[in-house]
Amino acid sequence: MLELSFGAVKSVLCLGAHCDDIEIGAGATVRTLIAERSSLNVHWVVFSSTGLRAVEARASASDFLGGAAAADVRIMEFSDGYLFAESAAIKRCFEELKDQVTPDLVLTHYRDDRHQDHRLISDLTWNTFRDHLVLEYEVPKFDGDLGQPNWFVPVDDERRAFKVDTILRRFASQSSKAWFTADTFNALMRIRGVECRSRTGYAEAFHARKIVVPR
Questions:
Q1: pTM, full prediction
Q2: In this model, does residue 215 exceed pLDDT 80?
Q3: Where in the chain are the domains?
Q4: I need a surface site. Which of 57, 99, 136, 206 has the fewest CB within 10 A?
Q5: Are strands 151-154 and 203-208 parallel, antiparallel or unpaired?
């Protein structure tokens, strides 16, 4: 299988509808990028939170972004499940981001995710960042909407364990959810690892809809 690298990625914009989305979908990839690039600048934006969830989100972001050359964390307070009702205000947030951030890579939600909040963030990402490499991550849930991703990032055992342990430790408010378990997170990475023949056995996977190869 042909292997491609993230090349000269120096700035990453991570977008999540909810407080644990980025970590679940791309946490190990972010840790890999930070480890491989000492000058990496990460912008981390969460759109929906409450008081307790916001505290959890900031603590988790601090853990995942440890070692980054620069980290800009923004936790907003739009209403979980009602982002469509506040889409005009969220669109304005995206326009502000476009003026403030010029990322080499954007990590966002899967466009065909059945959660309405996730779809909105993905749609606004593509609407706003048209000259950037956009990778769409996946979040497992009841809806059964996992697709067939085409960009895989192998995950070593250390980063796999860090991702799962940190998510479970930092987001204790979600522990009552039946799907919010180590088995769930490890299983998805294991399946994606099989699909890309990862030497470690694990991987995170993304949907890459547009890629331009330099001549």
A1: 0.96
A2: no
A3: 11-208
A4: 99
A5: antiparallel
